[in-house]
Amino acid sequence: MKGIFVLSNLLLFSLILQNHLAYTYTAYTPIARYLKVPESDVPKLLAQEKTLVEGNRIVIPLVTKNEQIFGGSYIDIIANKININTKNLSENGIITNNPAMKPYLNLLSFIQVKNSLYDLNSTFEDLTTLAIEDNATNVMLSNEYIVNNIVIYLSHSDDIQNKEFIADAIKLNPIIIYDEFDESKIEVMKNHSNPKAPNLNAPPLQVYVLGGDGLHNSEFSAFCTAGFWVGSRSNSTFYLMTAAHCSKRGPFNPDGTVDFYHLPWGSKGGGLLVGSMFAPNMSAIKVDMGLIMKQNNRISVTPSVRNTDDQEFPELRIYGIVEMDTVGTLVCKSAYITHSTCGKIIAFNVRVINESGRIFNGLIKIEELACQGESGAPLFPFVEEMFPGIFITGMITSGRVGSACYAVPIGRLITDDMYILTVNDLI
């Protein structure tokens, strides 16, 4: 009987331990979830990624210089390969005979493809011209090396207006994907609560707003995510950067601004006023970027990004900015709904033609980042030797459920008069 009691306790302890281990969250959890690998594998994969990116940065100018032969390059972290698309395998020596490539030769994989970079770029521009001439709406064009084709993203709700464009586009043999918005997931409900974050019944006297925190307007009709704090060199004012389109729904103050309030992770209601954003003319702006002026003395600025699910590193400190250049690289984001998630870069220089015919250039497409309704979220690569320090590489501007996110690269967000707050800035 005593043995049965001991055995029962051991089984119970084992179940409790397994349950605890199953829900243990570490710095590697978001990457492991995306790659579908054990967290113990992540450090090795990150080391592989670093080497692959170094090698691909040598490949990129060689491929670009020989754009009629090669069709772009991208890395595969799991396979530990730099994949180089080529129309002519006999020309591989252009890459392999370059002395700088010697340390990376065993990582190279040449793939026979139909389209060269020249072909892809020409088709990309031809499709843009057709979209404009045919008055197409809500068209997203992406030059994707992984599939060696131009991918067009459309919605069936625009089929009537896009009918002529679709008929013309098919002749150029792109990949057309109908990627529908799930309206039920675009915005957070007013009483949304996340059990992993602290439950805040009332805001404290002084509140730090971090990148990744939620934002809402006064009517709870618009929700976005805080990006990061920036400063103005000309007037010493602090602004919270987020997506400009967050202000589209108002309600508008007499001066045309829209007030935004803090929505911490795990909160059940509205928070403190952060400040107001001048609502931009969405038919005229080139970058979906808005600035909320800090107008509340109870709001404190900090060069940090929210990571509360990780009890060891609940905040990620911003050390600076970095531009990404390699397809296949991992990036992560912090946002109000889904918190910290990661995905890989699928394409650079994505082009969007919106319902007003306005063209947005230079976006980054990221696979499976889970970001619909989380516009404004900060985007950053995972640099293990710097962690919990991070470098901001962009800001989420849009996303679609089960598909991809689109981000504005940091180089298009920071102006000459503006600087991003980092740990080196004394606030």
From TrEMBL:
<dbReference type="InterPro" id="IPR043504">
    <property type="entry name" value="Peptidase_S1_PA_chymotrypsin"/>
</dbReference>
<feature type="signal peptide">
    <location>
        <begin position="1"/>
        <end position="22"/>
    </location>
</feature>
<protein>
    <submittedName>
        <fullName>35776_t:CDS:1</fullName>
    </submittedName>
</protein>
<keyword id="KW-0732">Signal</keyword>
<dbReference type="InterPro" id="IPR018114">
    <property type="entry name" value="TRYPSIN_HIS"/>
</dbReference>
<dbReference type="InterPro" id="IPR009003">
    <property type="entry name" value="Peptidase_S1_PA"/>
</dbReference>
